[in-house]
Structure formats: C-alpha cells, structure tokens
C-alpha cells in the first residue's frame, strides 16, 4: 500500500535514524506499521536526541493496540480496509438476506408456565456466571459520573451496581435453598470496564466493601480502545494534540467476548462445572426481575444463545430481533441494530420501513441485550474465533464521492452479534417479556427524552425510576394486593405514571412465587404511599398502607407487618434539570423526595415479630 504523505525515502530515513533508540520488539512493530502503509506516523519524527521518550511511548502504545486486538494491528488494518471499501461501495451488510418476524418464547408474568420457568432458572443460577458490560460513557445521557453509580431509584438511593450485586447474591442464596443442601457456590461476577470507567468502578466497589460480595467473586476486565482511521486506506489517525499518539475510540460492547476468552476465565468456569454466562448492561433496573424465567427458558429449551426481548415501538433505540433468510437458504435469528432496521426493511419490500403494526408495536421484538449463553458451546466457538466478533464501520463522509471523512472513524463490534459466526445447527432463540417487567434503561438526557415521540418510552432517569415503582406495584397486584392506580405527572417535560413508591431488597423476593408467599390476607396500598422492605423474612398480612412504611430486618427476624399504617408519607417534588444548585443525579430525574413522615422499624435481633400499629 503506497503512502500519500511524504516519500518512502523520507519515512524510512526518519525511522531509520531513530532505530537505535528502540528495542528489538519496537523495531519490529515500526517495520510492521510501514509495511501496512502507516509510514505517515513517522513523518514528523525529529533526529535522535529530540523527544526520544515520546518516540518510545508511541511504540508502547502501538504494542498495546497490537496486543489487545485479536490478530493484532495487521488484522485490524486489513479488516478496516475491507469494511471501508464495502462502506464506500454502499454495500448493504445484509445483502442477499430477507427479513421476517421470528417466533420465540413469549412469557406472561405470573402464569403457571412463568412460575415453572422461574423455578428452573433459580435452580440453574448456581451454575451461572454474570457479566456486566460497563465500558460505555453514556454520551446520550451526558452524566458526568459512571452510570452504574447512579441511583436506580431515589426512595432508597441504591445505585445500579449495588442493586446488581445484591440481586446476584439473592439469586445465589435462593438457588442454594432450592437445591437443598447443595454447596453454595460464589457466583462469579465480571464487569467489563474501559479507561473511561475503570478506576471509578473499582473505587465504587472498594469504598462500599463490594456491596457485600466477596472481592474474589468480582473481576474487572478492562477493554482497550482501538485505533482511529483517517481515510479509506485505513491510515491510522494521529492525535491532533500529540504527534506521538494514535487517536483511539471505543470498539463497542462486543469486546466482552475476546476479553473473557483471553482472560482464561471461561476455562476456569468450565472446569468448575458452570453452565451459563449471563450478559447484561449498565442501567436496566428491571432486568433481574426477568432473569430467573429467561434462564429457565434457556435450560428447558437447551438454547445455546437466548436473547431477552420486549415488545418494541417503531424507531425505539433498541435493535430488532429479526429472522434473516439468505437467497441460498441459510437462515439466522439475529439483532438488527436500530439504525439498520429501517433501511433493511425499505430495501426488502417493506415500503414504510420501521413502523408499528396494528398492535401499536413494531412486529420485530426489541433486543434488550441481555444474553444467556451456554458455556460449553461458547468455549468451542471462541476457541475458533478467539472471541473476535463481526465488526462494522460507520464513517461520516464529507463528500458524495465518499473519499474523505468529517472526523476519524474506527471499527466497532456489538456483543449481540456473537451468533453471526455460529453454525446453522446452533440453538439460537429468544424470550419475550413485558417491558414493564424487564426493561427500563437510563440512556437519554432530559432534553432528548422530552422530545421522544408520544407513546415511545423515554429511556431517561425519570422513566427508569418510575418503572421500578410500576413493576413492583404490578407484581404486588398480581400477588393479590390492592394497589391504587397511578397518578399522571410531568417531570423534566416527560409525562409519566407515578405509582406508589414500593421497593424491596432483592433478598426479599427474586421470583413471583416468592412475592406471593410473602403476601397474605387482604392488603392495600394507596397511591401516595412509600414502602421499603429490607429483609428476607418480612411478610405482609392484612396491611393497609397510606403513608410511608420502612422495615429493615436481619435474615433471622421474621416480621409480620399488618394493620393500618397512616402518616403524611414521602412527597415527590419537582426539580428542573437546568437548576445547577441541585446534584446532577437528582436533577436529571426531575424530582426529589421530601420525607415528611414515616413509620420506620428495624429488627436486628433474631425472633418472630409482629408490626401492627
Ligand atoms: N458498552 C461497553 O461496555 N463498551 C463500549 O465500548 C460501548 C458500550 P449503550 P447501544 O438494550 O438498550 C445497545 O450505548 O450500544 C456498554 C444494543 O446495541 O447503552 O446504543 C455500555 O456501558 C441495542 O441493540 O447502548 O445499544 C452499556 O452497558 C439495544 O439492545 C452497553 O454496552 C440497546 O443497547 C450498551 O451501550 C438496549
């Protein structure tokens, strides 16, 4: 590949003059770069003696980029050239495929089938590992901290990471109890971080004693960024502020597969007898309500890959699960990303593209990127691919001839593209659940959320929190509690349903059957109420709540809460997202909680207790 800046002689001279500064490994890397058409990187290298440390630091970065990509930079540059050529030629990545609506396992919360799947799932949890992808900065949300530190809801202030860890620990306990007497296994928990999130994630864990998890149970795997590309020849981009640095950008959540593979963890898990790996994202406070049943589906249907899905609104920023049939007969069920679904549909006979059907939803189920992968077949596949996932490139061109980019681009990959390389014999399925139960991410800033078309979910901090109260209220209703209807309220320009603020620790109940077993007699909760249950053995019996009730109890304290609880409760007060005097995590949700009056009881001794005011 010829270079266009500087003559080969210049490049060779610049580099040749400096070779003596470099270690033998660095010399090899420099030669590789020149051979791969990257001589421009040395164009402005001065004579030896000038900025020598910077030159060596440059090759250190090259070594890191080379080591962290399957196949090294040679592979990266070759793939980039191919993908950039396809992009320039306007080649559709789904060329030859016709989309259609796939059929999956649709679950209905609380029915016998659901309860059965949940029980199966909880039994399986002992043999599972959980993987959270949390390397993204969340540009759409615009929050300054890491997203896993945000509160899931402001009634208790529990952050996402704490909620996830407590949910895994609660499932670990529940699984052990169901399997009676079986040895309790510490479920492995991996968090994929990036340079943008790593230190702050570690700090959050360390300052909170890992939220009750054993530190050895948690493993952080940091993804590296990849080199940026300046043009269709895949010339690596030099950082505009530092000529000794290659510009880098995130490679996407698909990195999780190669990191798990190269870390050796998959083999360790396999040797320990684990069977499942569950992947999930950084801000979905509902997810763990869906996990037991979905894992039950995986085990029952023997799925190698099971994606969780919810009904999708047309143009919602979640991918569509699609059956793709190739002209040559091949088929696959795969996520088509939200920005690709509309063009694919239009190109294949759906004249209106990504629109709702008569049901009011897109016919394509929405991918919520919760994947359950069976470990054995996963290792087999990764042994072949080393975890490399099919990549894509999305350059923003300056000109119609597509010869130059507005800004540098890079290759990206998505974790849900894992099934793309699987053989047709692989058992790939998906499970659809109600959105109210399974999906309420926090992705959009208040301004953008307020612009979401009416009827589509906001995916904001406001809607994410309100979804927790709604899901808990609906679950209790299903279990027989009389829960008042919600009130409509507007926060940060978003109209949402405000249900009673009901929250519980994961240990209180991980399945519908457990919720049901903890609710007896005739219970009622008014709309203005708040109820917080922090304890495993708290039972509601003939409780009438109109106000705020907070109960905390150790595992060995069995508490029956009944009678009539009435007080002023906790009020919700509007806050404007532009009010800089309010902490960021409060103002992005548009309200704060004013704790007027409550009944608060703590049980820290073992025994049986009755709360009956
Ligand atoms: N993430 C990383 O860990 N590393 C990265 O380099 C990038 C992200 P976004 P996105 O379910 O809501 C996905 O940005 O990519 C983590 C699916 O592709 O929140 O727009 C990041 O920290 C889409 O099909 O989402 O869309 C976060 O935890 C749909 O399912 C996660 O990856 C959508 O999520 C997702 O990153 C959804």
From TrEMBL:
Pfam families from the UniProt entry: UDPGP
Q: Which Gene3D superfamilies match?
A: 2.160.10.30, Spore Coat Polysaccharide Biosynthesis Protein SpsA, Chain A
Task: Please list the GO biological process terms of this entry.
Answer: UDP-N-acetylglucosamine biosynthetic process
The name under which this protein is listed is: UTP-monosaccharide-1-phosphate uridylyltransferase
Tell me if Transferase is a UniProt keyword of this record.
Answer: yes
Q: What's the family?
A: Belongs to the USP family.
**What are its E.C. numbers?**
2.7.7.64
* Source organism (scientific name): Escallonia herrerae
Keyword Kinase: yes or no? no
Query: Which transformation does this protein catalyse, written as a reaction?
Result: a monosaccharide 1-phosphate + UTP + H(+) = a UDP-monosaccharide + diphosphate
Question: What is the main EC category here?
Answer: transferase
What keywords are annotated for this sequence in UniProt? Nucleotidyltransferase, Transferase
Q: Which cofactors is this protein said to need?
A: Mn(2+); Mg(2+)
* Coiled-coil region list: none
CDD domains in the cross-refs: UGGPase
Which SUPFAM superfamilies did the record assign?
Answer: Nucleotide-diphospho-sugar transferases (SSF53448)
Give the classification, highest ranks: Eukaryota, Viridiplantae, Streptophyta, Embryophyta, Tracheophyta
Q: Which molecular function terms from Gene Ontology are attached? A: UDP-N-acetylglucosamine diphosphorylase activity; UTP-monosaccharide-1-phosphate uridylyltransferase activity
């Amino acid at each position: 590949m010829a270079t266009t800046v500087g003559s080969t002689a210049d490049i060779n001279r610049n580099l040749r003059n400096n070779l003596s500064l470099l270690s033998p490994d660095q010399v090899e890397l420099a030669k590789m770069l020149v051979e791969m058409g990257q001589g421009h990187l040395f164009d402005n290298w001065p004579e030896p003696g000038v900025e020598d440390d910077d030159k060596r630091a440059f090759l250190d970065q090259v070594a890191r980029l080379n080591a962290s990509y399957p196949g090294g930079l040679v592979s990266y540059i070759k793939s980039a050239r191919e993908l950039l050529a396809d992009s320039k030629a306007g080649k559709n990545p789904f060329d030859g495929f016709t989309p259609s609506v796939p059929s999956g396992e649709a679950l209905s919360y609380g029915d016998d089938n659901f309860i059965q799947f949940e029980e199966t799932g909880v039994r399986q949890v002992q043999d599972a590992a959980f993987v959270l992808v949390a390397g993204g900065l969340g540009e759409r949300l615009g929050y300054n901290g890491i997203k896993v530190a945000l509160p899931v809801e402001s009634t208790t202030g529990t952050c996402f990471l704490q909620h996830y860890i407590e949910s895994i620990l609660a499932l670990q306990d529940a699984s052990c109890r169901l399997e009676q007497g079986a040895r309790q296994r510490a479920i492995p928990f991996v968090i994929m971080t990036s340079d943008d999130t790593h230190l702050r994630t570690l700090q959050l864990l360390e300052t909170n004693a890992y939220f009750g998890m054993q530190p050895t149970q948690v493993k952080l795997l940091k993804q590296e960024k990849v080199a940026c590309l300046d043009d269709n020849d895949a010339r690596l981009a030099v950082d505009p502020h530092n000529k000794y640095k290659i510009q880098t950008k995130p490679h996407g959540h698909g990195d999780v597969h190669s990191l798990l593979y190269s870390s050796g963890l998959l083999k360790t898990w396999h040797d320990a007898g684990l069977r499942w790996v569950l992947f999930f994202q950084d801000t979905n406070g509902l997810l763990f309500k869906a996990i037991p049943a979905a894992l039950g589906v995986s085990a029952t249907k023997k799925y190698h890959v099971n994606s969780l899905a919810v009904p999708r609104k047309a143009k919602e920023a979640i991918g569509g699960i699609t059956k793709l049939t190739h002209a040559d007969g091949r088929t696959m069920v795969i996520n088509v990303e939200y920005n690709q679904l509309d063009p694919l549909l239009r190109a294949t006979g759906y004249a209106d593209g990504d629109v709702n059907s008569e049901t009011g939803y897109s016919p394509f189920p929405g991918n919520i990127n919760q994947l359950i992968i069976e470990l054995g077949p996963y290792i087999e596949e990764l042994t072949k691919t080393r975890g490399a996932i099919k990549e894509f490139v999305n350059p923003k061109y300056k000109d119609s001839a597509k010869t130059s980019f507005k800004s540098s681009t890079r290759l990206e990959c998505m974790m849900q593209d894992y099934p793309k390389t699987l053989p047709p014999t692989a058992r790939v399925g998906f499970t659809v659940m109600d959105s109210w139960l399974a999906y309420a991410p926090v992705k959009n800033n208040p301004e953008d959320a307020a612009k979401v078309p009416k009827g589509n979910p906001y995916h904001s901090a406001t809607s994410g929190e309100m979804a927790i109260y709604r899901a808990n209220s609906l679950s209790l209703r299903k279990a027989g509690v009389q829960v008042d209807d919600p009130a409509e309220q507007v926060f940060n320009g978003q109209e949402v349903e405000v249900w009673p603020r009901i929250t519980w620790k994961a240990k209180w109940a991980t399945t519908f059957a457990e919720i049901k077993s903890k609710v007896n007699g005739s219970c009622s909760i008014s709309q203005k109420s708040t109820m917080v249950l922090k304890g495993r053995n708290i039972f509601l019996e003939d409780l009438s709540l109109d106000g705020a009730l907070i109960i905390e109890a150790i595992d060995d304290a069995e508490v029956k809460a009944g009678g009539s609880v009435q007080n002023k409760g906790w009020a919700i007060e509007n806050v404007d997202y532009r009010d800089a005097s309010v902490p960021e995590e409060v103002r992005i949700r548009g309200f704060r909680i004013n704790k007027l009056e409550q009944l608060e009881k703590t049980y820290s001794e073992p025994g049986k207790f009755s709360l009956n005011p």
